[in-house]
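User: Sequence recovery, please. Input:
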């Protein structure tokens, strides 16, 4: 069995994985790394929201070279399977290996996003034998939620005009651009019947087994949105709806959803059976474990037909999934929206979404579309946690050097790409004039889902590439 302690990057990753660090809860891991760096004799600046700036002097012979920034985020997306009892506020993420893959042993996200980047930077900081210019290592917080970390880093403390972001998930690809975006909260008023329909029982219908994934990086994979699919079951059978609940994070494609409905059991049984049969055909490859079940539930007053029609219209008509493909990068999504959370209470439905686009203009277009839907249905909406796109620029010396270094080290080509995910690079570019940036990382899969995993061999190669590149800067 592979020993994590044999790899210094994975050893550091295991250490920080013991510390809960959901987005907004990063102080403990920030304090740990601060103490760890100070014990190494490094200069550390920690701000009031737990961002860290750690500086390491240049190695001998590199004193006159311009400084370089390494950047990663401390927080993680907290997703788990229904069967997992993991408490993200206090439990460590335990690790397991399956062949070349490192995974969570807790039925949760692994936190390789962006823990591997953090661990790689820590390993560089502690290795006194490496050759490199002066380093400024910036660890930010709340990347997965508000972008408050990168927006509040004291950039006056930074001298670097070259930045290596460590938040990539494909070893052979060098990210040179990323999307911007915003969160949306959409709140629709609902009304309920004042009497219970006769001859009906209450049943909870559950849809599970979808793969979910990153609302940007996996939006093109056709894995299905559990909220939208469950709505199909309800509508097709004409079931009276009491409540709907689905998704746990706007940044993750919903894997599971449930609804309480009123009907006779035969109607529910037939609706579930027929829908499961058709959906298993539709998602035979993308979601082979898709499952629809039902069980008795506690009865309550259903939504009025008019309220349910509005709820259904929002889910049907709201942009959800790919909006437009990118004309400049083949196979790349340019803009999208993800309905990541939906819940009903006594008198309203609340949905949370994540809009992404390569340009501010396309993000604004989708936001305007959702606003029109809100106006038509009498809902309220507001945007929050917006972040800037990183538009690829020409003439990057850092990009050229990175691609050449990869070819020199491995004899293989590194492809320059833009991604349909939000990186902090866009905000850094807005705040630091003339910043030359790239993003790199090892092979990872299924970010923002409990299937998240990282290749152990790729982590080793990623680190070899990184130290080789620093030696050339």
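Assistant: Recovered sequence (473 residues):
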């Amino acid at each position: 069995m592979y020993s994590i302690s044999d790899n210094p990057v994975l050893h550091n990753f295991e250490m920080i994985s013991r510390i809960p660090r959901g987005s907004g809860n990063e102080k403990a891991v920030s304090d740990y790394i601060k103490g760890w760096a100070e014990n190494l004799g490094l200069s550390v600046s920690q701000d009031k929201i737990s961002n860290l700036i750690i500086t390491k002097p240049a190695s001998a012979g590199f004193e006159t070279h311009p400084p370089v920034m390494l950047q990663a985020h401390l927080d993680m997306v907290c997703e788990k399977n229904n069967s997992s009892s993991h408490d993200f506020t206090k439990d460590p993420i335990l690790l397991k290996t399956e062949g070349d893959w490192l995974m969570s042993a807790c039925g949760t996200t692994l936190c390789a996003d962006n823990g591997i980047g953090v661990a790689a930077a820590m390993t560089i900081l502690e290795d006194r034998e490496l050759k490199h210019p002066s380093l400024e290592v910036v660890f930010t917080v709340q990347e997965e939620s508000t972008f408050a970390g990168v927006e509040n880093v004291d950039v006056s403390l930074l001298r670097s005009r070259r930045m290596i972001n460590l938040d990539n998930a494909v070893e052979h690809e060098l990210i040179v651009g990323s999307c911007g975006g915003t969160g949306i909260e959409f709140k629709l008023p609902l009304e309920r019947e004042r009497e219970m329909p006769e001859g009906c029982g209450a049943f909870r219908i559950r849809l599970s087994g979808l793969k979910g994934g990153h609302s940007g990086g996996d939006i093109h994979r056709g894995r299905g949105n559990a909220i939208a699919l469950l709505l199909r079951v309800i509508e097709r059978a004409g079931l009276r709806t009491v409540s709907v609940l689905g998704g746990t994070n706007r940044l993750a494609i919903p894997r599971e959803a449930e609804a309480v409905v009123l009907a006779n059991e035969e109607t529910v049984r037939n609706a579930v059976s027929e829908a499961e049969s058709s959906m298993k055909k539709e998602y035979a490859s993308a979601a082979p474990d898709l499952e629809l079940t039902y069980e008795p539930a506690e009865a309550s007053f259903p939504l009025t037909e008019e309220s349910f029609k509005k709820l259904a219209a929002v889910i049907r008509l709201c942009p959800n999934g790919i909006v437009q493909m990118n004309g400049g990068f083949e196979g790349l999504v340019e803009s999208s929206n993800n309905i990541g959370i939906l819940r009903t209470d006594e008198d309203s439905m609340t949905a949370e979404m994540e809009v992404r686009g390569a340009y501010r203009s396309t993000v604004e277009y989708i936001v305007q579309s959702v606003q029109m839907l809100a106006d038509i249905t009498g809902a309220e909406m507001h945007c929050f946690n917006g972040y800037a796109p990183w538009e690829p620029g020409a003439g990057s010396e850092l990009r050229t050097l990175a691609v050449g270094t990869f070819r020199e080290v491995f004899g293989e080509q590194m492809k320059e790409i833009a991604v349909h995910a939000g990186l902090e690079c866009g905000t850094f570019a807005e705040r630091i004039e003339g910043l030359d940036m790239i993003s790199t990382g090892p092979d990872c899969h299924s970010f923002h889902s409990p299937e998240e995993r990282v290749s152990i061999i790729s982590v080793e190669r990623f680190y070899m590439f990184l130290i080789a590149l620093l030696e050339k800067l």
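The longest helix spans residues 265-282.
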